[in-house]
Amino acid sequence: MTDKEFDVTPWDVEGNVDYKKLIEKFGTERLTEDLKKRIYRNADERNLYIDRDFVFSHRDMDKILEDYEDGDDFFLYTGVGPSGPMHIGHIISFKMTKWFQENFDVNVYIQFPDDEKFWTRDRSYDEVEKYAKDNLKDVAAVGFDPDKTFVFKNTEYIGNMYKAATKLAKKVNNSVVSAVFGFDSSTNIGLNFYPALQMLPTFFEDKRCLIPAGIDQDPYWRIQRDIAPKLNRKKAAQIHNKLVPALTGPEGKMSSSKPKDAIMLSDSPDEVREKVMQRAYSGGQVTKEEHREKGADLSVDVAYQWLKNLFLEDKSRVEKIAKEYSSGEMLTGEVKQILVDELNRFLKEHQKRKEERGGELVEQMMYEGSLAQEMWNNKVEL
Amino acid sequence: MTDKEFDVTPWDVEGNVDYKKLIEKFGTERLTEDLKKRIYRNADERNLYIDRDFVFSHRDMDKILEDYEDGDDFFLYTGVGPSGPMHIGHIISFKMTKWFQENFDVNVYIQFPDDEKFWTRDRSYDEVEKYAKDNLKDVAAVGFDPDKTFVFKNTEYIGNMYKAATKLAKKVNNSVVSAVFGFDSSTNIGLNFYPALQMLPTFFEDKRCLIPAGIDQDPYWRIQRDIAPKLNRKKAAQIHNKLVPALTGPEGKMSSSKPKDAIMLSDSPDEVREKVMQRAYSGGQVTKEEHREKGADLSVDVAYQWLKNLFLEDKSRVEKIAKEYSSGEMLTGEVKQILVDELNRFLKEHQKRKEERGGELVEQMMYEGSLAQEMWNNKVEL
Asked: Which residues of A touch B (CB under 8 A)?
């Protein structure tokens, strides 16, 4: 990590992000070893992202555990804007969310803000629908409990949400959304209203809500945390992951708008191999000789970082790679090959689940599962 | 009418309104004698408000008639914000709307913006609901065709409207609603979004929409008329009435927030008598002697203006009162007594219809009538 300037907002992530500074800047809490242990005391299994400090920051995670240890439930909330095909970076929060659901047996709400994606660009609903259809199956393939997970598109579920959302909207004025989201006079009145709908699912149950998300999403929830007490409701807790860097290096995060620099969830084994081998930013040296002598800079090596943070459960294997790669014993091509194998193994399983069960699971999570039916049969109360 | 300054905005009407100047200021068209004749050629009966130039201005009324004469239908749209009990002034646009429905056999859409009324003040939904319940019965008592009229509360019908409204919202930015509605940084993000929902019913059918309303409502529809062509839809036509003055005189319009200066639709005969006799602004002279000598100033006399514009169908009777009252032959008390009788006759009938059939008609217009069922079974397309 360098001291280079960085800027993380909900809309953009640029530069070489210093996560320690980010915690200070945003005013979040570090996920301490004590808190990790406390999570694990309540969970049935360990979690790779937490183990590797890829999930590293939080707000009120201690309160979530306090509630839970007192026998009180909590619930999870996440979402994805259907504006393109999904990539590896998108799946992290979903996998983290699934881990919490599995280990704490709680409900999950997943918002598809099709309205917001229609509003933000010159994009038609046909386009948004197309991506939503595909993204929904990707989410389904993550393996949420279909009876404890409710997935909804805003334009479809609005009839059950609107009145409650109007109560949130009344507590938020134009200057607040301008300060938090950067909206201005040229922003359309739909997007300007959207924060009310984004916030609403944090109140779907009268329990504490936990949002697993990238640290860049933190500012989104400031308004929620300001107004929740005014409504006699709980502030949304969050647990933050670091940003998944693009293949091309740690400058900024992966984006669907640059598919060549991302691993898409639909990539074939050959595409994965080609992308990783040709485009993944290497911390190794240019010539083999130089590499053997100086070794690799692990902190900027995308293949190593991905393996360590996202894929290799076996810690000793990571340590071995770290040692051999940084000393120059291991070559970039070898590390990349391990990543290609891990990615392709993950994607093969993901694509199989998406293909075989995606459609059916989407139906359950959106309409037919127990939680979905309960949500459709009741209006959100606030 | 004086040259005193006047200001008419959707939120406020103050001063001694000069309607001729208002037509120029707003850029609407005068309802000419030719246009009146053309309306009557197509209608089955005359209309008091049009006859007396109480309905005096329009936008595209000629196009409405052109469509109609070509065998093309149009439809009507009006509404009322449930923020208090309704008064005589509220009923004018509804009666005008009903007249068009009866004479042109067209559909009517009536919006109850409960969301907007919740957003504009420190007002709970309980309060809004209470007024809505009562206002709905008042509207029902006007006598719309229950199979050709759809009445809806925004928070209830939103599921069928929202997606179409998002398409309007995308075409309207914060600076536009700031200019037209005076919204600013302290406006909540709900009210800021509301113009999209207010506009949407003008697109409920792919025909021209006619809005009968007070001239002060004209600015509301400027945005609709700007964006309709961009959506390949028709600009909303309007036909404007003058504002019903408060009892206390032609300075400003009647308001539910000053019930003593208004005739409420629920007033008893005694209340009406007391209000008119004690509070109606008189154009007559202070002493009987002076009055006999100088006569009354009809232009500011509320009882005379109300009788002429809103109640007395018999033109010769109006002319007789005008002559005798302005000459001093007739006294203020006599003119007021005629108004009391007319008001009480109207209110007795209204209250009887409201009491006897209000509940049932509301059910039909909101849910069970032919048009209501069609509207509930289909989402609004845009």
From this structure: 115, 118-119, 125, 155, 158-160, 162-163, 166-167, 169-175, 177-178, 183-193, 195-196
Reported as a single tens digit per residue, the pLDDT across B227-245 is: 999 999 999 999 999 988 8
* CA-wise closest residue to B73 among B48, B100, B46: B100
Which residues of chain B have a CB within 8 Å of the CB of A163? 115, 125, 155, 158
- pLDDT tens digits, residue range B15-24? 467 888 889 8
The answer to whether B7-246 and B258-353 have equal CATH topology is no
Tally Cβ neighbours within 10 Å of residue B122: 7
Q: How far apart are CA A211 and CA B229, in angstroms?
A: 43
Domain B258-353 sits in CATH 1.10.240.10: yes
- CATH code, A7-246: 3.40.50.620
Could you tell me how many residues make up chain A? 382
> CATH: 1.10.260.40, 1.10.240.10, 3.60.10.10, 1.10.286.20. Which one for A254-353?
1.10.240.10
The single residue listed with the structure tokens 């409207």 is B161
Q: Which two tokens stand for residue B232?
A: 């390949």
* pLDDT digits 0-9 by tens, B7-42: 554 444 444 678 888 898 899 999 999 999 999 999
Interchain proximity B175–A185, CB inside 8 Å: yes
pTM metric for this prediction: 0.93
Chain B environment of A178 (Cβ under 8 Å): 185
For B86-125, what is each residue's pLDDT tens digit? 999 999 899 999 999 999 999 999 999 999 999 999 999 9
Chain A residues close to B189, C-beta within 8 Å: 169, 172-174, 177, 192-193, 195-196
Q: Are A101 and A145 in contact (CB under 8 A)?
A: yes
Test B173 with A193 for CB contact under 8 angstroms.
no
What are the residue ranges spanned by the domains of chain A?
7-246, 254-353
Name chain A contacts of B380, Cβ cutoff 8 Å. none
Give the distance from CA A26 to its chain's centroid: 18
DSSP 3-state assignment of A155? helix
Contact call for residues B75 and B106 (beta carbons, < 8 A): yes
ipTM of the complex, rounded to two decimals: 0.92
CB A152 within 8 A of CB A380: no
The SS3 assignment for B310 reads helix
